[in-house]
Each structure stands twice: as structure tokens, then as C-alpha cells.
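[09:14] KT: can someone run the structure on this one? pasting the chain below
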Amino acid sequence: MHAAHEKLGIDTVVLDLRQLVDSFDALVVASGRNDRQVRSIAEEVERRVETALGIKPTHVEGWAAGQWIALDYGDVIVHLFDEETREYYDLEHLWNTAPAYRSERSA
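[09:31] RB: done, C-alpha cells below
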């Protein structure tokens, strides 16, 4: 959450999926205003996770277009969207029964 906040990410939310799926524990979802900001947030997430935990994502998807980037850390998957793409996929609605923890920064 802090990495997205640092890069002025919008509406960061962590969805706790431990009681709903077996394949991973949480989704982190955040938005940027454009592809450049989405990539910047992704870079900051990668940098902070590697610095704090010494791990890199096992898989990264969507870097080229920058409208949606997924960083797979095994138990935690980070989804970064531009605002329009986030609205289209609406992951929070898909997982609406999961406990959600939002950052204090909403815009």
C-alpha cells in the first residue's frame, strides 16, 4: 500500500482472500492516472518488496501496455490499473465478500 501511496496511486485496497480461495491470500489493487504512473507504481512496488523481503515477482504481466500490470508474488498478487481499465474489470465487485482494507489516500 505504501509504494502505491508514494507514487500517488489512487484508491489502494487489499482484499483478504484467505477464506475464499486456496491459491493465494490477497489481492492488492491500485490505480494510476495513466500508463506512465501505473508503471511507476509497479516499479516502486517491486523495489520495496525486493528491499524489504528480498523477493521478486514470479511473474509480471501487462508491462508493455501499462493499462494493467499484475505482479505475482505467490501468496499476494498486485494489480495496478489505469482508472478506466480498473473500472472495466472491477475486481472489488468480483471479490465483494472479501474483507477489504483501503489506504487513507483516495485521490
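[09:33] KT: thanks! Strands lie at 10-16, 26-32, 59-61, 68-72, 76-82, 100-102.
[09:34] RB: yep, looked fine to me
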